[in-house]
Amino acid sequence: MKVHRFFVNEELENKDEITIFDSSVIHQARDVLRLSTGYSIILLDGKNKEFHGKIKLLTKTELVFSKEVMKEYPQPTLRNLTLCASVLKKDKFEWVLQKGTEVGVSHFVPVITTRTEKQKLNMDRAIKIIREASEQSERRILPSLVEPVSLKESLESCETPIYVLNQDGEKFDVNQIKEHRNVSLFVGPEGGFDEKDIDMFKKFNAKFISISPNVLRGETACIVGSALFLSDF
Fold first, then answer.
1. Phi and psi at residue 188, in whole multiples of 5°?
2. Cβ distance 163 to 207 under 8 Å?
3. Which helix H or strand E contains 63, and what residues bound it?
4. Which helix (H) or strand (E) is 43 found in, with range?
5. Domains of the chain
6. How far is CA 84 from CA 89, 179, 186, 200, 208, in A?
7. Distance in angstroms between the alpha carbons of the first and the last residue of the chain
8. Per 3-state DSSP, what percentage of the chain is helix, strand, and coil (rounded to 5)?
9. What sign has the CA pseudo-torsion 32, 36, 40, 41?
10. What does the DSSP 8-state code read for residue 58?
11. What is the distance between the alpha carbons of residues 51 and 115, in angstroms, rounded to a whole number?
């Protein structure tokens, strides 16, 4: 039987019994998964530790967890990939967050470029999507997410080296990044990057790369690019 996993904000390490009041966790456990007293679950603190135990009490307002075992794991060997993606319309960016989390993205930076049409993001919903995707894909460390920022701000704060997906760029070879533990990947909006954006990238010595002979949608490019950048780990 699958043991379900939940990320929580409570202190887990120094207590044998933990009471959780997070309504989203309680709803998922009680109403969606139909768990009840006596079920085994795993709680995660987002810091590469797992806490195994059982549900001692589960009501509409609280979940009481009885801890049995703590497991600590070595730091993951995946490359730290910062995905700097233009905010996409409708639910496409949420799809990027979900699938990017499953693939192994470490940090999400929503970027507002010259052609970006949607400039706001429901952060509470976005964080919920990342957390649930992390639980489903059995990650132990939650990817980080920041509020949408301008292209210049993202370039000033992101990890180097910086790569930009561009149809006219050099064909990507994963050997280009083999020696880099941290790397940033930029993906543009519907319609691609504007010339002003291209000039900005050049100021930061970004490298333009192509990952397909076909023109990919923004959300597709985000996931295919992320998978390629993590493929040698």
1. -85, 180
2. yes
3. strand 63-72
4. strand 40-44
5. 4-72 (2.40.240.20), 80-229 (3.40.1280.10)
6. 16, 21, 5, 14, 14
7. 30
8. 30, 30, 40
9. positive
10. E
11. 45
Contact at 8 Å (CB) between 73 and 50? Answer: yes
Q: What are phi and psi of 4, to 5 degrees?
A: -80, 150
What CA dihedral angle connects 195, 116, 161 and 198, to 10 degrees?
A: 0
Write out the chain's pLDDT in tens, 233 residues.
689 999 998 888 888 899 999 998 999 999 999 999 999 999 998 888 899 999 999 999 999 999 999 988 776 667 899 999 999 987 899 999 999 999 999 999 999 998 888 888 999 999 999 999 999 999 988 999 999 999 999 999 988 899 999 988 889 888 888 888 899 999 998 888 999 999 999 999 999 999 988 888 999 999 999 999 998 65
Token pair for 210: 């192509």
